[in-house]
Amino acid sequence: MAEAASATYSFTKLVVGDLDAMARYYGDVYGLAPIQRVQAEIDGAAIDELILGRDGSYGGLILLHWVDQDAPPNGEVILGFTTGDVEALLSRAEAAGGTVRVPPRPSDAGGGRVVGFIEDPEGHLAEVVEQR
Predict the structure, then answer these.
(1) Domain locations in the chain?
(2) 3-130 falls under which CATH superfamily?
(3) 81 near 90, Cβ under 8 Å?
């Protein structure tokens, strides 16, 4: 598979009910600190998230809070993948039974990176980010 069409696991978004309390927990227990706060939308629903890391460096764990709706059941996560060709990745997902929930588009909250969301056949969400 060509590099542009491949995808690399990159981050996990843990869905939480109390964003600030969980940020304190992951700081106290694992030494992770907020390095960026993002307020955006997923499929039209407002989110607030904290990207955690250590010493100002990205750590791969993001805490996500749905602003105007209840969180899904405990244990639900949003997986994150980066790719050089998000359109090819979405095509593979649809061919394998996935559903594009949010078509890829440049994200102001994501620094202009192209971001989309895919739902797997069981309803689990993945965020796909095109690296340029």
Answers:
(1) 3-130
(2) 2,3-Dihydroxybiphenyl 1,2-Dioxygenase, domain 1 (3.10.180.10)
(3) no
3-state secondary structure of 119: strand
The one-letter amino acid code at 72 reads P
Q: Measuring CA to CA, which residue among 95, 102, 97, 61 is closest to residue 78?
A: 61
Q: What is the pLDDT of residues 77-115, one digit of tens each?
A: 888 888 899 998 898 999 999 999 999 999 887 788 899
According to DSSP, residue 92 is labeled H
- How long, in residues, is the chain? 132
The total of other beta-carbon atoms located within 10 Å of residue 123's CB is 10
Confidence category of residue 33, pLDDT binned at 50, 70, 90 = very high
